[in-house]
Amino acid sequence: MTNWLKTAPKWVILASTLALGACSSQPDDPYADPRDPFEDTNRAVWDFNRELDKAVIKPAAEVYENVPEPVRNSLYRALENLQEPWSFVNNVLQGQFKDAGVTAGRFFFNSTIGLLGLLDPATEMGLTKREESLGQTLAVWGVPNGPFLMLPVLGPTVVIDRGTDWVDGNYFPYTEISDDWDIPRYTIKGLSLRLRLREQEQVLDNSLDPYTFVKEAYYQNWNYEVYDGNPPPEVEADAEEVDFSESSY
């Protein structure tokens, strides 16, 4: 459930979560996940998010579903198009110059003949999305992920991911857009994501431990994004070394 709020409050949420986590104690548990030192606090936030989703977010997404699908898809594409310039910069910083060229081409064609991103002619031309964030760039450079965090409303993350949101949200063309657009921007993206997540609800509900299921899904997706679908063997090995047997809960 990421990118639902304005960027500045995320720093407040991140700081408060770290402060709460610092107050929590973790026993000398051989089954404890070293990536998740604030597990007690994270699980409390997870429970809060689940209740908030049932009461507010899921009903709101179901109302938004009444908007015709072509309109919803066009709005989402337009918002995604605004991210292309920053993806271009991060592709360059990662030395992925071919992907940077693809990203620049996507922004040009979708912003012109694609009517500011409402349409996606770039994909039809073979220019598939190459989205990159500053957090991914820092990870590629070798900066550690930091601890796993479950943030209120925003959901699962690691410090290097959410901790760079302020930078990710302050670049062209966002700097040219009024702050009045922030709330509808994050709302549309958040509700669109929530509708897509419905397909995973049954798998989540049937899991032995939904919290751990979501955490592992987040790490798999994060590593996939950082390493462009090809995480090195040592990253996969680190994940396999963590014991998530039922005795840890």
Automatic annotation (TrEMBL):
<comment type="similarity">
    <text>Belongs to the MlaA family.</text>
</comment>
<feature type="region of interest" description="Disordered">
    <location>
        <begin position="229"/>
        <end position="249"/>
    </location>
</feature>
<feature type="compositionally biased region" description="Acidic residues">
    <location>
        <begin position="235"/>
        <end position="249"/>
    </location>
</feature>
<keyword id="KW-0732">Signal</keyword>
<dbReference type="GO" id="GO:0120010">
    <property type="term" value="P:intermembrane phospholipid transfer"/>
</dbReference>
<dbReference type="GO" id="GO:0016020">
    <property type="term" value="C:membrane"/>
</dbReference>
<feature type="signal peptide">
    <location>
        <begin position="1"/>
        <end position="21"/>
    </location>
</feature>
<protein>
    <recommendedName>
        <fullName>ABC transporter</fullName>
    </recommendedName>
</protein>
<dbReference type="Pfam" id="PF04333">
    <property type="entry name" value="MlaA"/>
</dbReference>
<dbReference type="InterPro" id="IPR007428">
    <property type="entry name" value="MlaA"/>
</dbReference>
